[in-house]
């Protein structure tokens, strides 16, 4: 039944491969269950309640992706967007978390409407094929950078922005050992190499103090109540300029993070059709729209498609069965939270580094002889890791593409929607 519904055999995959891919994706993004409550609690929200809201919103959004879009992508409250929610809107601008949650709720409604009227699909399909390949490469460098940072191999430096961390740190050694383990397993063509690498690194971390098991560790626990944050909105200031600014920022970052992830991972996995379009993209965009809408009601920040989905795709995930597995894992995590919480960043980081390698292969498909194509592609690739944002990489790539085509008299190659998007990007920068 599952094979027929998800067309697993037709997509040249197996049920085992899809399940392993889903578990791998989950293992690389399970950190959000610990990180999101920590960030949103800084805004005054109940930390335990946010944990439950985070897991539930991930389950609902990923189920939509699995059962409606039937694509191997997972969703959860987005990193960066949660920080903007807590540290900019609440702590910086001085608004209540209820105000910020209302902005997320409105964003979800707007996204549902934009998706229903095919506006978001139009944006995805307007991105030139070379830029779609570049997005995959840029995401590869970006998530590899996240992985290197997660191990402590790369650290911040006030003089040079980044520099090499201490090679004596146990987390660095665990991370590097994980990369080697995955590398050996991949070379020997062992299925589930990335997942095995995560588990092996977690176990290794026990011996050097990187994997911490709390004294009060219990395997099973009931999920905390979401009552303190459920349906807590403040509609008294929805027509203010500040609400407009906050709403626009949420919309902009989430739209192009999701678009970038869908395009980049689809490009890498060979899912783009002959016209360079993402299959069932409208249904995929509905998943994060509904996730954001429901997530706000439950009490969490914007839900988006996770770039860590690339880890599952790298393991062979090709259908919605991968996403269904992720959704089931998030549902189980509500009751096994203590177990998942002991997996350290140093154990998931090697997976991100290796997936970064996988993601850069589409660079061979980019036309580097035509500078009106090569320069935008390069901007897309380099700006993602350096700005720590998929969205900003797309902004620089698309803006430079439009400007170079216009200035060289090749305006016929520009789709009208790209002109509109470029104008909006310029307004974002200078207004």
TrEMBL record:
Cellular component annotations (GO), alphabetically ordered? plasma membrane
Q: Name one GO molecular function term.
A: purine nucleobase transmembrane transporter activity
From the Swiss-Prot or TrEMBL record, state where the protein is found.
Cell membrane
UniProt keyword terms in alphabetical order: Cell membrane, Membrane, Transmembrane, Transmembrane helix, Transport
Pfam families, sorted: Xan_ur_permease (PF00860)
Q: How does it sit in the membrane?
A: Multi-pass membrane protein
- What InterPro entries does UniProt report for this protein, alphabetically? Azg-like (IPR045018), Azg-like_bact_archaea (IPR026033), NCS2 (IPR006043)
Spans through the membrane: 20-43, 49-68, 75-93, 99-119, 131-150, 170-186, 193-213, 243-265, 285-307, 319-340, 378-402, 414-430
Family membership noted in the UniProt record:
Belongs to the nucleobase:cation symporter-2 (NCS2) (TC 2.A.40) family. Azg-like subfamily.
Q: What is this protein called?
A: NCS2 family permease
Q: Which organism is it from?
A: Gramella jeungdoensis
| Native organism taxonomy | Bacteria, Pseudomonadati, Bacteroidota, Flavobacteriia, Flavobacteriales
